[in-house]
Design brief:
Oligomer: heterotrimer
Number of strands of chain B: 5
Protein name (chain B): Malonate decarboxylase acyl carrier protein
Largest interface: A-C, 76 and 93 residues
Radius of gyration of chain B: 13 Å
Main location (chain B): cytoplasm
Chains: A alpha/beta, B alpha+beta, C alpha/beta
Number of helices of chain A: 11
Structural class of chain A: alpha/beta
Shape of chain A: globular
CATH class of chain A: Alpha Beta
Strand content of chain A: 15-25%
Strand content of chain B: 25-35%
Strand order of the largest sheet of chain B: 1-4-5-3-2
Pfam family, one (chain B): ACP
GO molecular function, one term (chain B): acyl carrier activity
Helix content of chain B: 25-40%
Keywords (chain B): Cytoplasm, Phosphoprotein
Distance between the termini of chain A: 49 Å
Largest sheet of chain B: 5 strands, mixed
């Protein structure tokens, strides 16, 4: 879905965004009050300038309205692949963005993500994946890399990976796999404004992705292994 | 991948030392070897997972040689292998045994 | 003449020197377990969910890849010069130190333990390209969990230190995690960034980034450049005991309480200024020259002590 029709469906009461290239921030009105918006569009490859622009919006929201929820709208093809960005420390810019979001959470802002286009690895890690709850539209795509590239890296025939991906959610792209693994709460259909209100009304409960992954059978070990280490088991 | 199991009767008790020892890494041309002291009716049991198929006879020879030199009782050896040469396998087995027998301070 | 790192020798008989033998060796050359053994006080390490638990990844067998009993990461607790620390070391030779479901959960569990145990620090010995592609989705989610757990541990008042001096360095999502830590300690050999040069070369072409030009790769991602940019808090020689010294130096005067708004606004300014100052550069050399370092092209050749002396002369504050 394109950004503008998405915003209209999410915010029938109105919104206002500032968009530079395919990176935007702003605010919107909901029946439950104002929310801060940040996000990317048109499969934006997130670079250092983009990460700073998003972080600035998060910091401003935390400074002026610490309790105001932050909605992240994600459509990114990943991190920008550029020597210049690596030279200046793109990992630090992404870390900075993640840290601004963590601060916002600690100051009382609810963090909600909606993947409405693509969500790919590094670009997704630094903001969308920082949310308390992550949702996706039915037509969205979430992945680390496509299956053909996977086949090259793991030196496995593509048809074998395709067959495996029907039984295992751990490596093949797809929103449903991320739902099964507990990273995506659910897929939104139809009334997006109502879905958003329901998400904002849910209490923050910390990082529960491992528990959900175990409940849903997509990530059966992570929860128990982390608990065993946390308990200091030999 | 292939899974292989061997069992040798032991004659010598293991000298005192650590409960277990792990040496090596699961990487191309390398292997990891985990030794554990376990009650096994006096046997040495060896369990191998290897990425390279069809080398059962070579494993048999290398491990038979190790078992002849160290006929140890109640020892479980677990190996994850990615195509290590017989020389590397022997070296890791010796290193693991040495690490297992290091006395705790 | 003896190189500075060839101090204690195996010929010296006392127990003290035996300890020095393992701690003065190269951090780069050591594997995960040797790094932990060299850093921590003798026999103080207690491993959590160790190899006997056989908590290997279940996702590798269908891809004909043998798993590792510790899934490529060693976690536990011990004493570093008498201070209680939690520690994790990635095994770089196993699948490039890649983070999968189990590997990641061990790191997350360790960071969560820090909140209740309140050690002097959590030490993350990173040696990784990021997500393990054999279980890519699980790895990506796991890194997100590690990232959040790192920030939660810091907010709870526990310092988390990234130690980077390994073959794989810290790339991918773990490069982001490194910069979410309280401090980053690097050796010249270490590398810290996001996308590997090989990936950039493959996608954007060799003109963008020649991954085989090792000197260029280090001028873009290596420890010296990261130190000059202010990305690594401390740069140390490639010795395990130098990393131990650096841990104590980093903890000295560090009062962790998580990021404050003021601190992050300062970071926002610093990172913006960096783009203003160096946004047109494509090689570390250009940045070092702008920092006012005389003869910047000699920096890669200097040993750590000489390099730190040269770096101290730079005019522009690192940003």
């Amino acid at each position: 879905m394109q950004l503008m029709p998405l915003l209209e469906r999410l915010f029938p009461l109105g919104h206002s965004i500032l968009r530079r290239d395919d990176v935007f921030s702003g605010s919107a009105r909901t029946a439950a009050g104002e929310v801060t918006l940040i996000g990317t569009a048109n499969r934006r490859e997130v670079g250092i300038d983009d990460a700073l622009q998003l972080a600035a919006a998060v910091l401003a929201s935390t400074r002026e309205h610490p309790q105001r929820p932050i909605l992240m709208l994600v459509d990114t093809a990943g991190q920008r692949l550029s020597r210049r960005d690596e030279l200046l420390g793109i990992n630090a810019y992404f870390a900075h963005l993640a840290r601004t979001l963590e601060l916002a959470r600690r100051r009382g802002a609810r963090l909600v993500t909606l993947v409405y286009g693509e969500a790919v690895s590094g670009g997704f890690l630094s903001f969308g994946l920082m949310a308390d709850q992550i949702y996706a539209l039915a037509g969205a795509q979430i992945r680390v890399m496509d299956l053909r590239a996977m086949a090259r890296v793991t030196k496995q025939p593509l048809d074998k990976l395709e067959a495996l991906s029907r039984s295992s959610p751990v490596f093949a792209p797809g929103v449903d796999n991320y739902v099964r693994m507990g990273a995506v709460e659910s897929v939104w259909q139809d009334d997006l404004a109502a879905a958003l209100l329901a998400a904002l009304a849910r209490p923050a409960e910390g990082d529960r992705r491992r528990e959900r992954g175990a409940e849903r059978g997509g990530r059966t070990l992570a929860c128990d292994v982390a608990a065993a280490v946390r308990a200091g088991e030999a | 991948m292939e899974t292989l199991r061997f069992r040798f009767d032991g004659r010598q008790a293991l000298p005192a030392g650590e409960h277990h020892a792990l040496v090596g890494v699961v990487a191309s041309g390398n292997l990891e070897v985990l030794l554990e002291r376990l009650p096994l009716d006096g046997a040495m049991e060896i369990h191998i997972v290897t990425a390279a198929r069809g080398f059962g006879e070579i494993w048999q020879a290398v491990l038979g040689d190790f078992a002849a030199r160290h006929p140890l009782r109640d020892l479980r050896i677990s190996i994850n292998d990615v195509g290590a040469t017989p020389a590397v396998v022997s070296l890791r087995l010796s290193q693991a045994l040495e690490a297992l027998q290091e006395s705790a301070p | 003449m003896k190189p500075p790192h060839a101090k204690a020798t195996a010929a010296e008989p006392s127990a003290v020197n035996a300890v020095h033998d393992s701690s003065t060796r190269s951090f780069y050359e050591a594997d995960a377990r040797a790094r932990i053994a060299g850093l921590l006080d003798r026999a103080s390490f207690r491993e959590f969910v160790g190899p006997c638990r056989r908590m290997a990844s279940p996702h590798l067998t269908p891809l004909d890849q043998p798993g590792a009993f510790d899934d490529g990461v060693v976690v536990g607790e011990g004493l570093l010069r008498g201070r209680r620390v939690l520690i994790a070391a990635q095994q770089g030779a196993f699948l490039g130190g890649g983070v999968g479901e189990v590997h990641g959960a061990k790191l997350t569990g360790l960071l969560e333990r820090a909140v209740t145990e309140r050690p002097a620090a959590v030490l993350l010995l990173l040696d990784t390209g990021g997500v393990r592609l054999h279980e890519a989705n699980a790895g990506l989610i796991a890194i997100s969990e590690i990232l959040r757990a790192t920030l939660a541990a810091r907010a709870a008042g526990v310092a988390v230190l990234a130690l980077i001096g390994s073959g794989n360095g810290a790339f991918g999502g773990m490069g982001i995690v490194a910069r979410c830590c309280s401090a980053v300690l690097m050796s010249e050999e270490g590398r810290l960034s996001l996308s590997g040069p090989e990936v950039i070369e493959t996608v954007r072409g060799v003109e963008e980034f020649d991954a085989r030009d090792r000197a260029l790769v280090w001028r873009v991602t290596g420890g010296k450049h990261r130190f000059l940019l202010g990305e690594a808090n401390l740069l140390v020689a490639d010795r395990i005991d130098a990393f131990a010294d650096a841990v104590l130096a980093a903890l000295d005067g560090l009062h962790e309480s998580g990021d404050s708004l003021v601190a992050l606004e300062r970071e926002q300014t610093r990172l913006s200024q960096r783009i203003a100052d160096y946004g047109d550069c494509r090689d570390g050399l250009e940045i070092w020259r702008r920092q006012g370092i005389a003869e910047p092209e000699r920096l890669p050749l200097l040993d750590t002590a000489e390099f730190l002396a040269a770096a101290a002369t730079r005019g522009t504050p690192c940003n």
